[in-house]
């Protein structure tokens, strides 16, 4: 059995070691976003998404896997972001300007083009600092909407919080009512904002899930991402580390202990009843699925 602390260490080791996102990393991001119904269809939040790299999220000291379920209380403060470009991710560099946003894409099945989605975070004029694995330099940025942690209504199902990094070209012109600091959390139409302001392209994204209590709504079940079957997999090197684990740990989002992600699928919306038998409660959802654990171990060069 792997220790909680050990997992956190793997995450840190991988984050430090990886300075270029592999084809498998990119394929994993795309697979997760497709399976979670966030990207790839006209009714999804992102009708198209071609990642130029990966976007890692760390809450406190805990880095999460794509789509991981996180305890609401552990997402109260903004996550640290680590951006790792793919070899052809030329729009990810230390010279450009970016916009960071977080949007609640609501539950699986939501028509994101007709449903107002909640803007939880919007920062214009950020830069990337470091090299290889970049962090965000907020100096001189415009925090239009300060980070507001998830607060899904009780019983409303597992919400998908999508963190987005857009390239912000010199032609970017934000709408007047979203151009200065201090605009509170509110619903908006992300696509309209992107179109009207000339933002883009979207270069990297990640998402996590937060659920409050047991779902009283029916959430369509999505299929799992199985990284070993992704078309770019040529050898089982699991070089993608923590980014590709088909993992969904469960935070202790539900005090009743019934809400959880499936250990087999980050994208699987958590029908609480269905996943009850897999439910475990750890302080922060740092349990990753078996594939993710193996990936981390091999990725960190530790072997199993
Ligand atoms: C990077 O290359 C891959 C493989 O050829 C391709 O699928 C992907 O669209 C490219 N990404 C960008 C941002 O050009
Ligand atoms: C962060 O951005 C500011 C303003 O552009 C710049 O002066 C500073 O050197 C940057 N910091 C790093 C570590 O790149
Ligand atoms: C900004 O103005 C647009 C119309 O120009 C409106 O649709 C939108 O709701 C406004 N947003 C905010 C945050 O007030």
Automatic annotation (TrEMBL):
Top-level taxon of origin: Eukaryota
Signal peptide segment: 1-17
Membrane-spanning residues: 282-302
Pfam families: PBP
Protein name, UniProt field: Phosphatidylethanolamine-binding protein
Annotated segments matching region Disordered: 233-264
Coiled coil: none
Keywords (A to Z) from UniProt: Membrane, Signal, Transmembrane, Transmembrane helix
